[in-house]
UniProtKB/TrEMBL annotation:
Pathway: Metabolic intermediate biosynthesis; chorismate biosynthesis; chorismate from D-erythrose 4-phosphate and phosphoenolpyruvate: step 5/7. Binds 1 Mg(2+) ion per subunit. This is Shikimate kinase. Substrate binds at residues 32, 56, 79, 143. SUPFAM superfamilies: P-loop containing nucleoside triphosphate hydrolases (SSF52540). One of its GO terms (molecular function) is kinase activity. The lineage of its organism: Bacteria, Pseudomonadati, Bacteroidota, Flavobacteriia, Flavobacteriales. It is found in: Cytoplasm. Monomer. Belongs to the shikimate kinase family. ATP binds at residues 10-15, 120. PANTHER family: SHIKIMATE KINASE, SHIKIMATE KINASE 1, CHLOROPLASTIC. It holds the Pfam family SKI.
Amino acid sequence: MKIILIGYMGSGKSSVGRELAARLGVRFIDLDAEIEIQENVSISKIFSEKGEIFFRKLENFVLQRILQLDENYVLATGGGTPCYGNAMEIIIGQKDAISIYLKTSVDRLIARLVTEKDNRPLLAHLKNEAELNEFVRKHLFERSYFYNQAGIKVENEGSVSDTVEKITSLLF
Ligand code: S3P
C-alpha cells in the first residue's frame, strides 16, 4: 500500500512519515527532497530564481512520477502539493494509495513555524509572530478545502510515535 501524507507546513509530515515507513518496513519518500535531488538545487532557490508557478508544475510532475512507482512507500508531500492543479484529484483517485491528512492545531503549527519559517519561501517574508499568525490562519483555512478531501484524518498533537500508533491502528 502507498500512504500519502498531506497537511500544512509544520504539521509533521516528514517526521511522522519517516517513523511510519520504518514501522511498516517500506521506503520513506519526501517530495521536497525528491524535487531537490532532481533539480540539484534547494526549494528556496527554485522559488527565488524560477518562481512559484514553476515550482508548482515541477511539484506536480514529480508527484505523478512517484505515484507511478511500483512499490509500497510512505510519501510526505509539501504543504501546498494537494492545493494546486489536479493534484488532490490524482491523489484521491489513486487506487493503491491512501491519503492521510495530518491535522495539527494552528497554535502548534505557529509554534513550530516561528523557528523554521526562514527555510520556507512562502513564510520567509513575514516579519514577526503576529504576521505569521495572521498569514497561517488564513492560509490554513483556504487550504483545508483540499486537505479535508483526504481518505483519513489524523490529529497530530502528541508525540510522533503516538501519531504513528494512531495511523497503524486505523489502517490495520
Ligand atoms: C510549501 C511547503 C513546503 C515546500 C514549499 C512550499 C507550501 O513543504 O514544499 O516550501 O506551499 O506549503 P513543507 O510542507 O514540508 O514545509
